[in-house]
Amino acid sequence: MAYAENTRTALVTGANRGIGFEIARQLAAQGFAILAGVRSREKAATVADEFKRAGADVEPVILDMANSARLPEALVELESRHAPIDVLVNNAAILIDGPGGFNSSLFELSEDVFRRTWETNVLGPMLTMRALMPGMLTRGFGRVVNMSSLAGQLSNMGKGYPAYRVSKAALNALTRIAAAEAAASDADVKVNACSPGWVRTGMGGKDAPRLPEKGAETAVWLATIDREGPNGGFFQDKEAQPW
To answer: pLDDT (tens digit, 9 = 90+) per residue, 215-243?
Structure first.
């Protein structure tokens, strides 16, 4: 695919389905060069066809957010092969079902479920920000959007799905720290988090009231804000939320 020289490049992780797919599609419609992060070659081939059917010019790239040993090197290769990343949407996340996972109490939580959730939902986004934000700061522009959840709000924290809750609270903390790093520079770099709401996806289930199109809206907004836009905020439906 060919883009104008001044086209912004966006990386959306976990873009093979649901909210991530829709974020990538909507940003592509706005003229971004989209790198859609997926975990395997098989998923890349499948999602390439799905994006074509949706009329979106998107480049699937293999990026396993749970493989922390390989991820930094993969990101360097990604920018070298394609283009420097101007917009990063950390969308990839897991919510593990079954014993010790979604339906468990804190006292049933297994180390394996906690570790796997942490690797994808927290360590992965930290590594992508650590790898890509310095380039954004040097070039003078960047947008980072971390897909969080109201389940991670400390102001309204309750019981249930403890690994997921802890991971999203930690992602919110990472958002604040990275935003403060950005604010300390003169660069036009913004880092924000958002909640998509309860969305009808593989994770949200068939009873969720929102479609992925709605769940993607706030992330797309934060990815395209101008220099006067927010930094270090937490949003749902484009409205600020308490941490």
So the answer is: 899 999 999 999 999 999 999 999 999 99
Region of 55 on the Ramachandran plot (φ > 0 left; ψ -120 to 50 alpha; else beta) = left
Question: Can you give the pTM of this predicted structure?
Answer: 0.93
User: Would you put residue 201 in left (φ > 0), alpha (ψ -120 to 50) or beta?
Assistant: beta
Strand partners, 210: 199
pLDDT one-digit tens code per residue, 3-19 = 445 799 999 999 998 89
CA dist 8 → 4, 11, 39, 223 (Å): 9, 10, 23, 11
- Say whether domain 9-240 belongs to CATH 3.40.50.720: yes
Domain ranges within the chain, ordered by starting residue: 9-240
* Catalytic sites, residue numbers: 164
* Residues 90, 172 contacting (CB under 8 angstroms): no
